[in-house]
Write a structure and sequence with these properties.
The protein is α/β, with parallel strands linked by helices. The chain is built from eight helices and 15 strands.
C-alpha cells in the first residue's frame, strides 16, 4: 500500500520513516511539511494511507481532513490527546499519541484494511526486521532476561546502573553510558547525566520534570533539555 507523511517536525518525520522501513509492508511515496503540499498528490497519485499530524502550519490536519471528499485511510499523529474524540468522528484508522513506540505503530497499521477487506498482517520478512525485544542484564555473576518494553527508566549508580521496571528493580554491572548505546535504537532517550527514560512511558512533561507516572518524576538536565524538547515537545 502506498502511503505519505504530512508532518512538519523533522524528528517526527524521521521516526515515521524508520518505522515504515522497518515494517516493510508499506511504500512511502512522499513526505510533506504542510497539508496544502499534499493536495495535488492526492488528486493524481494512488495513496492508500496518510500519516497526518494535527498541528500543522497554514491548515491543521483536522481541517484538512474535513476538506477531503473521498480521503484515503488516515492515521493521525499528535503530541496532544485533546483531539481523540473528534478524530474518531472523522472515521480515522487510529490516533497515535507522540511519542509512540514501534509496537504501537504496528498496532495502528494492523487496523488498515485492503481493498479485499483483509487486515494488513506482518509477514515473515517483517518479523525478521523487528528488533529483538529481549535483553540479558549482567548482574554480578548472573544474566537476567528482561523485556525491553518493561523498562521504565535507568539510573546511574556510580559505575553501575539501576534498571527500574514496573514492579521491580535490577542492578546492572554496566555503566549508564553502556546502556545509552545499547538502547539507542529503541525508544529510550537520555534526559539527565544520571537518567535514561523509556519515552513510551512518558505520562506528561511539566517544567523541568518528566512524569513517567503519578509517582515517578525524572529531572531534565540542562545539557539535555534542548535535545529532549526538539524531539518530543513543540
Amino acid at each position: 500500500m502506498n502511503c505519505i507523511i504530512i508532518e512538519d517536525q523533522l524528528p517526527a518525520q524521521r521516526i515515521l520513516k524508520k518505522y515504515i522501513t522497518d515494517l516493510g509492508t508499506l511504500n512511502l511515496t512522499g513526505t510533506y511539511t504542510d497539508a496544502l503540499q499534499a493536495v495535488e498528490v492526492l488528486k493524481t497519485d494512488k495513496v492508500g494511507l496518510i500519516f497526518l499530524d494535527i498541528h500543522l502550519p497554514k491548515l491543521s490536519g483536522i481541517d484538512f481532513l474535513k476538506t477531503l471528499t473521498n480521503p484515503p485511510q488516515v492515521i493521525l499523529t499528535t503530541a496532544f490527546p485533546d483531539y481523540a474524540l473528534e478524530s474518531y468522528d472523522l472515521d480515522v484508522v487510529d490516533y497515535l499519541l507522540k511519542p509512540f513506540s514501534f509496537q504501537r505503530f504496528i498496532k495502528a497499521v494492523s487496523k488498515i484494511t485492503l481493498d479485499d477487506h483483509q487486515k494488513v498482517v506482518a509477514s515473515d520478512t517483517f518479523t525478521r526486521k523487528e528488533p529483538d525485544q529481549v535483553i540479558f542484564v549482567k548482574s554480578g555473576y548472573e544474566h537476567i532476561k528482561i523485556n525491553i518494553d518493561d523498562i521504565v527508566f535507568l539510573k546511574s549508580d556510580s559505575d553501575y546502573t539501576e534498571l527500574y521496571l514496573e514492579h521491580k528493580k535490577h542492578l546492572s554491572s554496566e555503566p549508564l553510558k553502556f546502556w545509552e548505546q545499547k538502547l539507542r535504537s529503541y525508544n529510550f532517550i537520555r534526559i539527565h547525566k544520571s537518567y535514561i527514560i523509556n519515552s513510551s512511558k512518558i505520562h506528561k512533561v511539566a517544567g523541568n520534570h518528566v512524569h513517567l507516572s503519578e509517582n515517578i518524576l525524572i529531572p531534565v538536565g540542562r545539557a539535555y533539555k534542548d535535545g529532549f524538547s526538539n524531539r518530543f515537545l513543540r
